[in-house]
Structure formats: structure tokens, C-alpha cells
Amino acid sequence: MPVSSASRSCDQVKLVLVTTIPMTLELFLQGQISYLKESGFEVVAVSSPGPALERVAQRDRVSVHAISMSRGISPITDARALYRLCKLFLRLRPSIVHASTGKAGPLAILAATLAGIPARVYSLRGFMIDRGRTGGRTILRLMEWLTCRCAHRVVAVSRSLADLVVDEGLCRREKIVVFCHGSSNGVDAKGRFNPERLTDSSRKDFRAARRIPEQATVISFVGRLVAGKGIAELARAWEGIRATHDDAYLLIAGTPEEHDPVDVSVLESLREDERVIMIDSVPHAQMPALYNACDLIVLPTYSEGLPNVTLEAAAMAKPVVATRVTGCVDVVEDGITGVLIPPRDSVALEEAITRYLADPPLRMRHGVAAREWVLARFAPEPIWEALRDEYLRLLTEKNLINPIQGRAQGDSAVGAPGRS
Predict the structure, then answer these.
(1) For position 160, what pLDDT does the model report?
(2) pLDDT tens-digit series, residues 296-321
(3) Would you say 303 and 276 are in contact if contact means Cβ atoms under 8 Å apart?
(4) In a 3-state reduction of DSSP, which class is residue 297?
(5) CB-neighbour burial class of residue 290 (10 A; exposed 0-12, middle 13-18, buried 19+)
(6) 3-state SS assignment for residue 279
(7) Strands, DSSP E only, in 56-162?
(8) 3-state class (DSSP) for residue 24
């Protein structure tokens, strides 16, 4: 998206973006980084080492720094990463540090506080506290509270998540913001996730490559294979569905993880089923083809920040069966663009899927409505603009830019849209 000269009030402002893994920078901030550069920011990216980090450097032409960060709790690795982040921030002296994801958020915000970075922004992408054991929940709660306390601004990816964090006493209401209708980057429904841009043979070819019959009805789950995504409930619901629908296939795209693992017996039962197609990973470029090859998407998760898979599926005109939890309630209109069910309820999940299997016109209506919903509410550009505006507001509050100069060059920092 081109940025007009009227918006350029951030020249010479150094912005450091920090994520735990580089895939977040590569996939979930695509377009956003280049937009911020065009707005005048000097952007630096920090994440764990990997090819994706180098691809970000080449794609967005930004400086990158690799600092290893574990996704789980690892005191030695975490302490080492905290030290290296502090050292890096002291050397770079950025005006803003913006950190997100479960581990990079707390570490980078604490490091930025210790290094005296004047503007600190924390993106809250989910609420993982309710998934840990009692001792783990206490640690996670303390980390979340401390991170929100040290940050000058907390950006929640959904309104339901923002409400939960405030209700839990982890963040003050006046500090938390939600851009537009939520999401960290929106979805490119006009371009990449646009079913009209796929060839007529795309659906057939994708299925043929995975030995899925052309006339089958395909239910798909896309995401990390962890217990918290409701894989056990999906497996139980599938048992009833496969017994009554001979043409139904289940496509699961995701990789099992050691953190919050799915019971081994559940994964084995799915792998042994000839009508369950399991794919460890799908190249990012092929995701539109995957959605196009499916008939409906399921996400029986226990909690979310705001699930990107539901936005992508909706953009591809596919209905979604999801749970009535944070994040999902922001992106699925129950009975209009999909169906919301109680979490941890395999019976309700089976009933909702069965309803769609029995009524192809309903799938079509909800899919069309879902695409219209996403086009109207989750375009990337307004979210990028709101983020830029929030940076400008924060820089002005901290006397890091001249507010008069900011107004002269476009006072977009005042009255940013979507403020919660």
C-alpha cells in the first residue's frame, strides 16, 4: 500500500520488532514491515535464527539480528536471551521496541525496560495461562502481568482477548488497544486469499496429489497439533462422522509439538485411518489451494487470541466450525458465517459438522457471507495505518517527535481508529 508524503512523520525513528520465531515475521507481518518502512521508520527485526529470518531481511530490506529464544520455559536459555536482548538494545538505542509472541514478548519488553528504551509496545496474541498446570499458570500470570506493566502500550489482537486480560487484572483498560476489528495483520482477501484467482483445476489437482476423491466432502483442520487445539475432540467427532458419511474425508495440516502434546493414541488412530489425510506442513504459497480443496474448516480450540486460519478460510469463502472462545467469537458470526460450539464438546462438534455435510447450500451461503465479512472488516491496510498512528501517538506522548511537526505532516497519530 503506498504511503502518501502526508503520512511521513517518522523519519529517523528506529523501530525494533521482536518475535520468538522468524516465521511470525515472515508470514504474519507480511506487508506490514514494508509499510512501516515507507512511513519513514527505520525497521530492525529480531528473532531466533533460521532461514525465515534471512528471507525477511531480503524481502523487506531490513537489518536482522538472531537471538535464540525457546518457546517453552527454559531458565538458562531465557536468561541468556534476556542478556543478549539488553545488550542489543543498548547498542541500537531504538525509539520503539515492539515485541510479540509468548516468549519474545516478556523477554524483549523486560530487556527494553532494563535498557531504558523510551517507547515499549507489547502485542498480545493469545491467553495461554489457562492451559498450564497450577505452578505453570502462576508463572505465566506473573510474566503476563509484568510484561503489561512494563509496556507503554499493549496491542491485543481481538476485543474478546482484551476484555479477558483486563478482567483478569493483568492490564489496565486505558493501556490496551485493539486495532479496527482485531487481528495483527488482517488478511489479503482481494489478492492472495481470493478464490477467483485460482484456476478451475486447483481443487482437483490438490486433492489428486493427496489421493482424495474428487467427489468427497473434505473437512479440514489447519494448525499446530497440540492438545489445546481440541484434536482429541476432533478425533472423537470424526469417529461418528465417518461411520455415517462414506464420502467424508478429514484433512489435517499441522505438525505435532512437544509442548502441550496430543495423546499418542489419538494421533495413531488418525494416522491409521485411510480417510484421514495428515500433512505435516503445507508451503505458505499453497495455503489458498488447500482451503479451496476443502468444503469446511474446523477449529475446536480451547482458547485463541485471534485465529488467522479462520480469516483465511473465510476469505476463501469456506464456513468455519469453531469454539465459542476468545478470538473465535470475534471472527465467526454464529449461524451466518459459520457455527460456534462449546469448547471440549465432541458431540456438539460432530453435530455442527454433520449439519454442514447434509446441507451443501448452507455451506455455500455461509461461505459467501464469510468472505463478505472478511472483506468488510479485516483488510490489512487499515490495521497498518492504525499501528502507525499508535506509534506516532506514543512517540508524541514521550516527546520523541514534535507534535506540531506531526500535525503538519499528517496528524494521523491523533484519534487512531479501532482504539478499545
Answers:
(1) 97
(2) 999 999 999 999 999 999 999 999 99
(3) no
(4) strand
(5) buried
(6) strand
(7) 63-66, 96-100, 119-124, 153-156
(8) helix
Cα–Cα distance between 334 and 171 in angstroms, integer? 29
3-state secondary structure of 103: coil
How far apart CA 130 and CA 174 sit, in angstroms, is 24
CATH of domain 5-186+379-408: 3.40.50.2000
Long-range contacts of 273-277 (CB under 8 A, 24+ apart): 273/238, 273/242, 275/242, 275/248, 275/249, 275/250, 276/238, 276/249, 276/250, 276/251, 276/252, 277/210, 277/211, 277/212, 277/249, 277/250, 277/251, 277/252
Same fold, 5-186+379-408 and 195-377: yes
Each residue of 56-84: pLDDT tens digit?
A: 999 999 999 999 998 777 889 999 999 99
- Please count the other Cβ atoms lying within 10 Å of the Cβ belonging to residue 206: 22
Sequence-distant contacts of 332-336: CB under 8 A, at least 24 apart? 333/369, 333/373, 336/366, 336/369, 336/373
Looking at the whole model, is its pTM more than 0.85?
A: yes
pLDDT 10s digits, 262-306: 999 999 999 999 999 999 888 889 999 999 999 999 999 999 999
- Is residue 218 a contact partner of residue 207, using CB atoms and an 8 Å limit? yes
Distance of CA 207 to the CA centre of its chain: 27
Q: What is the strand order of the sheet 119-124 is part of?
A: 63-66, 42-47, 14-18, 96-100, 119-124, 153-156, 176-177
Residues 6+ apart with CB under 8 A from 300: 229, 230, 231, 233, 234, 237, 321, 322, 323, 341, 343, 346, 349
> Domain segments of the chain: what residues?
5-186+379-408, 195-377
Rg (CA), the chain: 22
Handedness of CA 361, 362, 365, 370 (dihedral sign): negative
Whether domain 195-377 has CATH 3.40.50.2000: yes
Cβ proximity of 97 and 16 under 8 Å: yes
Integer angstrom CA distances of residue 276 from 210, 238, 252, 271: 10, 9, 7, 7
Q: Cell 503538519: give the residue.
A: 408
